[in-house]
Amino acid sequence: MKRDIISVMDMEEDLEDIIDLSIKMKKQRYQDFEPTYGRVLGMIFEKPSTRTRVSLETAMAQLGGHAIYLNPNDMQLGRGETVADTARVLSRFVDVISYRAFKHENVLELAKHASVPVINALDDVEHPVQIVADFMTIKERKHHFSNLKLAYVGDGNNMANSLLLGAALLGTDISIGCPKGYEPRKEIIEKAREIARKTGCKVEIVNSPSEAVQSADVIYTDVWISMGEEKLKEQKEKVFGGFQVNSELVANASRDYIFMHCLPAHRGLEVTDEVIESLHSVVFDEAENRLHTAKGILYTLLA
Ligand code: CP
Ligand code: NVA
Q1: Rounded Cα gap, residues 284 and 281, in angstroms
Q2: Is the pLDDT of residue 285 over 90?
Q3: Percent of the chain beyond pLDDT 70?
Q4: Which of 2, 150, 231, 267 has the largest CB neighbor count within 10 A?
Q5: Among the bound ligands, the one closest to the CA of 53
Q6: Quick check: do 8-126+289-302 and 131-286 share a fold?
Q7: What pLDDT is attached to residue 229?
């Protein structure tokens, strides 16, 4: 049976194992990884990417394999070939496919018809590979996942959804502070609450940023305007005005809090320069860990 990673839930059994493998790989960057020699990753990107593309491509190179960047506009996919047929054809060539898509349904469709593993490289619902790097960074800095509070301030978007699931699985308290009407997906909140009952952590959704960050060990934010939402820019910037992570807001957090952001950041909007450049900020370690976790994930899927 092939294995896909479409949601954080697809790592329900081994999220922490993948994190630990990534930590090990970070220390042995160029070690031989025989099971991944000569293996090929096909990467379909419907949206731009810096970190995801470069980390996956570098990961395959360091694992002794190869990656092919596929822009739908240069593929027959852009001329109407179906996702299902694309999946079946690519499966005859490559060993694993990553897909950054506008629609979650298309990632599911690709996975359904591909006979090789499919990695969700971000869609409108989740960003599971980012979560592995985020919690790896938290483990490096805080050494454990329980008795920690992660506050996410901002849009209840793909990042918020995946953070909810990741925190619940690993037993980290999570508080989401977002404007009314911009909460994470209802079914994901429910799923996170169900898992949290088992792992013994709290899942809270509030509409006040200061309430969310109260005594937080980790403060996380993401862009207000996600890729594909450009036409909502004016409207959303108005609604999110009070949700900026700035010096005043972080004063409510625990003294040794860390600041995280999946990047790219829009300084002066969701976060001030002062906070992202402060000693509390771990955003570039977090970005670097995208490489190590890409290797952890690819090795897990291919080995
Ligand atoms: N965080 C993240 O996924 O960045 P990219 O859009 O650059 O891949
Ligand atoms: N929420 C952002 C994440 C970018 C990594 C987006 O979807 O554009």
Answers
A1: 8
A2: yes
A3: 98
A4: 150
A5: 1
A6: yes
A7: 97
Whether the CB of 158 sits within 6 Å of ligand 2: yes
Evaluate if residue 182 carries a pLDDT over 70.
yes
Provide the 8-state DSSP code for 278.
S
Q: In whole angstroms, what is the distance from residue 244 CA to residue 246 CA?
A: 6
CATH architecture, domain defined by 131-286 = 3-Layer(aba) Sandwich (3.40)
- Per residue in 88-114, pLDDT tens? 999 999 999 999 999 999 999 999 999
Q: Please, are residues 250 and 185 in contact by the beta-carbon 8 Å criterion?
A: no
Q: Is the pLDDT of residue 56 over 60?
A: yes
Give the pLDDT confidence score for residue 6 in this predicted structure.
96
**Whether residue 104 has its Cβ less than 6 Å from ligand 2:** no
Q: Of ligand 2's atoms, which has the minimum distance to the CA of residue 157?
A: 1
Long-range contact pairs involving 274-282 (C-beta distance under 8 Å, separation at least 24): 274/246, 274/247, 275/245, 275/246, 275/247, 275/250, 280/250, 280/256, 282/137, 282/141, 282/258
Q: What percent of the chain has pLDDT over 90?
A: 94
C-alpha closest to that of 158 among 19, 41, 47, 293: 47
Q: Does domain 8-126+289-302 have CATH number 3.40.50.1370?
A: yes
The two structure tokens encoding residue 62:
């360091």
Confidence of residue 31 (pLDDT cuts 50, 70, 90): low
Q: Where are the domains of the chain?
A: 8-126+289-302, 131-286
CA of 158 to the centre of ligand 2 (A): 7
Tell me the whole-structure pTM to 2 decimals: 0.94
What is the reported pLDDT for 28?
74
How many beta carbons lie within 10 A of that of residue 207, not counting itself?
Answer: 16
Expressed in angstroms and rounded, the spacing between residue 121 Cα and the centre of ligand 1 is 9
The closest alpha carbon to 148, from 162, 134, 133, belongs to 134
Catalytic residue among 4, 201, 262, 292: 262
Mean pLDDT estimate for the chain:
96
